[in-house]
Amino acid sequence: MVGPVVNAAAIVVCALAGCFFIRGIPERFEEIIKKAIGLSIMYVGIKGALDNQRVLLLIMSMVLGAVIGEFINIDRLLNRFGNWTERKLKRYFAMSGGTFSKGFVSASILFCTGSMAIVGSMQSGLQGNHETLFAKSVLDGSISLVFGASMGIGVVFSAIPVLVYQAAIALAAMAIRDFLTADIIREMSAVGNLLVAAIGFNFLGVAGENPKEIRVANLIPAIFIPWLYLGLETILKTT
To answer: According to the model, what pLDDT value does residue 209 have?
Structure first.
């Protein structure tokens, strides 16, 4: 639970700083900070992926996961869910005059629907490894600083859905951890870290609005392929 709590706390502190102390950050600072964070995220992801001991399994997991994720089109489903949530929340907070609603909705959608929230929370639950969520905390904090300065106190309250959402994923991962071997957890985490590196690549702006940008959400099924493969391998060895 450390990762989700730190992430939520970073949003609260930075959003409050943006609301009361910052009155706009120059775009050039925002851009260089984003690239610095992107490089850091890539490093964290690659470093974790190197713990892999079955390279062929990692490659197979990425390919099969990409096919499954693209077929389901998880990226589109997440975007639809985000748009639906935004419409519902805006209607609910309409009485606030729009300022609170804009900050709360925009920040909540951005912080919750990204692949980094899912992968990082799973790593926290499976391994107790909070590096990805710590990196996400720096990123979300930087964004909260800017959003807080421009959209007000609603950004602070976006920490609540972020905490609940990420904690739920982490707790679910903890619940199934006892059913996984050390090898399965290691290989699943290696695939997850490779997805984190892809997120860092996207943050660098190398792809930008280009269609070649990696749709990381569509790669999420790859995390579960090692579980299926190694589980089946264990069953075959015991029969």
So the answer is: 47
Per-residue pLDDT reduced to its tens digit, 146-196: 778 777 787 888 888 889 989 998 998 888 887 778 888 888 888 888 888
- 187, 231 in Cβ contact below 8 A? no
What's the Cα-to-Cα distance from 206 to each of 70, 217, 232, rounded to whole Å?
A: 22, 18, 39
Residues written for the chain: 239
End-to-end CA distance of the chain: give it in Å, rounded: 38
Residue 65 Cα distances to 6, 51, 58, 62, 218, angstroms: 30, 19, 10, 5, 8
Q: 182-203 and 225-238 are packed helices; what angle lies between their axes, rounded to 10 degrees?
A: 160
Write phi, then psi, for 11 (nearest 5 degrees). Answer: -65, -45
Q: Kindly list the distances between the CA atom of residue 8 and the CA atoms of 63, 165, 231, in Å, as whole numbers in the listed order.
A: 33, 11, 35
